[in-house]
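Pilot study result, target chain (268 residues):
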Amino acid sequence: LEIAALLIKLKPGDEVIVPSYTFVSSALAFHMHVAKIVFADIKPNTLNIDETKLEKLITKKTKAIVVVNLFGHIAYLSQLREIADKYNLFLIEDNAQAPLGHEDNNLAGTVGDIGVFSLNYHKHFHTGEGGVCVTNNEQLAKKMQLIRNHGENCVEELNVNNEINTIGLNLRMTEIAAAIGIEQLKKADDLVQERVDIANYLNENLNNLDGINLPVQRKNTRPVYYMYQMRFDEDKVGVSRELFAKALAAEGFPTFLGFIKPLYWLPA
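Predicted structure:
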């Protein structure tokens, strides 16, 4: 996302629309590069950005829309692409949690102008740390190559003669991490399918429990379940969420409560 923020050439006053409920880096990368963050509402069933409420947030200062495929569930990518194209905005996919997920056979992370994937150690497949940006735009791809190494790597091959005006960082992946990542990619289908199989088992066997709301799987999508999230209704179950979680842990079923606070609550 740091690379994506640099690629879209933000200026002071530019606005970037970000879902209000996501990991902090989805907003922080753009905030660090002078953008004003405009928080968008989310859908209560999937926790993904609500595409039906986006257009009222778009102004003349809007530069990009960030969509996050949270917990491995796929947002309404085709509709978001249409909105971005209608207003000539960048669409940036934070696809850290949904590799090999798809909507209508379009792979998540490839619908936006820039797709961002995470290789952090608890993702579906990983190198310990790091990530990958993808694009089908040749010019953006060239800029990525520059940004990842202080704005100066590959300048001769790319026929760049003004590298002094290219802002870059040290974002090089090590050879060891890349070697691990290549081997992980060879097993990616199986690693992702393992989580999907576990989620499907839970979906089939927990769907009649009153007060336990299971993840919603949209038609024509393949969610890949980075996390398996359930919404708990204390009134229907008759005990607190905390007590219920303790009971599950006592039976050998580990859980954790909540994900993060909405980003607009964070002091930063």
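One observation from the pilot: The mean pLDDT is 91. A full batch analysis is planned for the follow-on phase.
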